[in-house]
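Duplicate of earlier report; Phosphate transport system permease protein input re-posted below.
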Amino acid sequence: MSLAVGLLLVLGVAAAAFVLARGRATALRVGGGAGRQRLNSLPFYHGAYAFLWAVIPALLFLACWAPIQQALITDAVMASPAGQQLPDFDLARDSILSEAQAVASGASDIAFNPQAQALVPVFASATTRFSLIGGGFALLLALAGAGWAFSRIGVDLRARAGVEKWLMGLLVAASMIAILTTFGIVLSLLFETMRFFQKVPAADFLFGTSWSPQVAIRADQAGSSGAFGSVPLFWGTIFIGAIIAMIVAIPLGLMSAIFLTQYAHAKLRKVLKPLLEILAGVPTVVYGYFAALTVAPLVRDLGLGIGISNASSESALAAGLVMGVMIIPFVSSMADDSIAAVPQAMRDGSLALGATRSETIRKVILPAALPGVVGGVLLAVSRAIGETMIVVMAAGLSANLTANPFNSVTTVTTQIVQLLTGDQEFDSPKTLAAFALGLVLFLVTLVLNLIALRVVRKYREAYE
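Output:
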C-alpha cells in the first residue's frame, strides 16, 4: 500500500465518519413530543466535527511521515549487500540511487547502470514495507479520531464551536507557513552569505567597484584572482529598474489612470483598461526580444546620431525603456483603484468651491489617493528590480559603473542567474557570491518597503 492509497483510505474513513455522525445527530432530534430533542448545533456541524477529527491528525502524520519514509528507505537500501557495494563518491552514488528509485517507482522502464538495476528490488521492497507502516498508522489515526468524535455526538455537544476551532487552527497554520517560509529563506541566505564572507572580506564586497567573479583553479593560474565588488551590480539594478524604468512607468501609468477614471467615457474605459492590462500578461522573454531586436538598435542609432561614439547595441536605456512599458499596468491599475475609491463627496465639494476639474484632480483626488499610488509604484519597482530576461537580452552582462545610459550594464538578478547556472561547487566564492547578492538585495527591498509604508501611513492619517 503506497501513501497515496493510505490517503484515499483516510479520506474514505473521514467521509464515512461525516455521514454516520450527521445521521446520528439527525436521529437525536427526530421524533415527536417528549422524544424530540433540541441539538446545540446542526447535524451538519456534527458530521463536519467527526470528519475533521478523522482527517486532520492522519494528514498531519502523513505529511511528517513522507520525508521520514524516504530517509528510512535510503538507509535500508544502503544497508543491503547491493547498497554496500556502491561507490564512495557522493555524486555517483546519488545518481545510481536516483536511477534505481525511478525504476522501482515506475517512472522509468529500465536502469542502464547494472548497480542501479540490482538495487531496484531492494527499493521496491523497502518502499512497500515503509508505505504499509505509514499508511496503516495513518488509517488507525483516522479510525481513532472518527471513533472518538462519534462517541461525543450528543445533544449538548458544541459541534459548531469545535469545527470553528479546527478551521481557525488551519488558518493560523496557513499564515505561519508564509512566515516560516520567509524566515527559512532569510536563514538560508544568511548562512551561505556568512560562508562567502569567510572567503571574501565584507568591505570588498559591499564597497568594491570591480566585479569579476573568476576564481583561479590552479595556484599558478593568472588573471583569475577574482574581484567581488558589488557596487556596479547594484548601480545597474537601480539605474535600469528604479530610474529609467520608473521615469517611463510612473508618468504614463499615472496619467493613464487619471484619464481612465476622470475623463474617459464608460464605454471607452471598458475597452482601454483591459487593453492596458494585457501588457502585464505578456511573457518577459517577448519583451526581451522586442528590446533586443527593435528598441536596442534604435537607441544605438540615437546615441550615434547625437555624437556618442561608444553607444552600444546593449544598453541600459534600451532595457529600461522596455521594462518601463512592461510595468505600466502595475502603476496604472493600483492608481486607478485608489482614485476610484476617493469619496465622491470630496470631488463634489472641490467643484462646488469653484475648482476646475484639473485642480480637483491635482489638489484633492491625487493627495487622497496617494497611499494607493505609492503602493503601485512600490510594486512596480519590486517587479523591475527582479526582472532578468530583458536585462540579459538588451543590457548585456558587463558590470560597468557608468551613468551613460547608452553603455552596457548588468543587474543583481542577472548575475545571480549567471553564477548559479550549470554545475557549480558551493565551496567556491564565485557560487557563494550569488547568496550574498540575494541577501543584500533582500535587505534593500525591505528598506524600500519600510519607507513606503511610512509614507503611506503619514498621508493616510491626513485623509481618514
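The radius of gyration is 31 Å.

Merging into the original ticket.
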